[in-house]
Amino acid sequence: MTIPTDPTITPASDRTLLLHFGEDHSPEIQEAVFQLSHYLLNNSMEGILNIHPGYRSVMVTVDVEKKSIQAVQKNLQQVLKNARAMELPHLNTKLTRVYEQNCPLGMPTTHSSLLIHECQIAR
User: Which domains does the chain have, with CATH numbers?
Assistant: First the structure.
């Protein structure tokens, strides 16, 4: 896993930690968020209840009855330290958009039924 920047780990509440990768909306940061989230979801760590990936961060909900925020933060720091040696799948950033040939609006018709409906009304 290649993490372009060292994320900061800060308590977001009395039961959550925020791993923040920076202010850019870059593909490298999105890749790091994806890879870290993938690792955490597939390698359970004691004290982690839930993983909430975002665009530039990952929020981790901690089960404070089992493990302290500080202990989980220390474990996450160790995961990040060892991350460069881990081999994880890469994020597929290519999206395929399918358009209905006869739609005068040129709207995508596979993303939601609302768009299909709008295209049908425009005919």
Answer: 8-85 (3.30.1360.40), 94-123 (no CATH)
Residue 94 has pLDDT above 90, yes or no: no
Buried residues in 38-61 as b, exposed as e (16+ CB within 10 A): bbbeeeebebbeebebeebbbbbb
Would the pLDDT of 110 be above 50? no
The whole-angstrom separation of Cα 14 and Cα 81 is 24
Confidence at 67, pLDDT banded by 50, 70, 90: very high
Burial of 33 (0-12, 13-18, 19+ CB in 10 A): buried
Size of the chain, expressed as the number of residues it contains = 123
- The answer to whether the pTM exceeds 0.90 is no
Residues 6+ apart with CB under 8 A from 76: 9, 17, 19, 45, 60
User: What's the DSSP call for residue 66?
Assistant: T
Query: What does the pLDDT average to over 17-31?
Result: 88
C-beta separation of 97 from 108 below 8 A: yes
